[in-house]
Amino acid sequence: MGAKAQARSVARLAAVQALYQMEAAGAGAEAVIREFSDHRFDRDVDGVRLAPADEAFFADLVRGVVADQSAVDRAIARRLARGWRLERIDATARSILRAGAFELMRRHDVPAEVAIDEYVEIAKSFFEGAEPGFINAALDGIARDERAS
Fold first, then answer.
1. Which of 28, 73, 101, 123 is the most buried (most CB within 10 A)?
2. Using only C-alpha atoms, what is the Rg of the chain?
3. CA-CA distance, 109 to 103, in Å (whole number)?
4. In which region does residue 45 sit, left (phi positive, over 0), alpha (psi from -120 to 50) or beta (all else)?
């Protein structure tokens, strides 16, 4: 994986964490973006240098999900089983879905397969059960919906 791709991977994971933090703590997008920029990126953790993040890409994802949240949530809701509401999904999975859906809907510079694979890998780092498969299916459906429209 090249440096740019790795920096985007780090940015995606950070965006998921930021979206989760915003929902859990009620923090605003700009405050969370600033916190990540000031305190989380380009740091050593236990003596290990973290991989650099594409901070502009991270900020675009976080701001974009917030700005387009109703459209993002509608796109996800279309892919949920009948009777399921987005609020019933685990908050981490919801953050992964929102970031992934936004990227598929608005970031056409990234191939859909790449974005889906990245978010499925993020899901695997948080979940051992069925969630990565569910996230894969939902994002794949959103990608097909977006290409059809």
1. 101
2. 15
3. 9
4. beta
CATH of domain 3-148: 1.10.940.10
Looking at the chain, how many residues does it have? Answer: 149
Convert the pLDDT of each residue in 116-143 to its tens digit: 999 999 999 999 999 999 999 999 999 9
Phi, psi of 6 (to 5 degrees): -65, -40
By CB atoms closer than 10 A (0-12, 13-18, 19+), residue 43 is exposed
Please write down the long-range contacts of 41-44, taking CB distance under 8 Å and 24 or more positions apart. 41/14
CB within 8 Å of 142: residues ≥ 6 apart: 75, 76, 78, 79, 100, 101, 104, 105
Q: Judge if pTM exceeds 0.85.
A: yes
Helix, strand counts (H, E) of the chain:
7, 2
| pLDDT tens, position by position, 46-78 | 555 567 889 999 999 999 999 999 999 999 999
For 49, phi then psi, to 5°, come to -75, 125
Cα separation values, 138 from 18, 33, 105, Å: 21, 27, 13
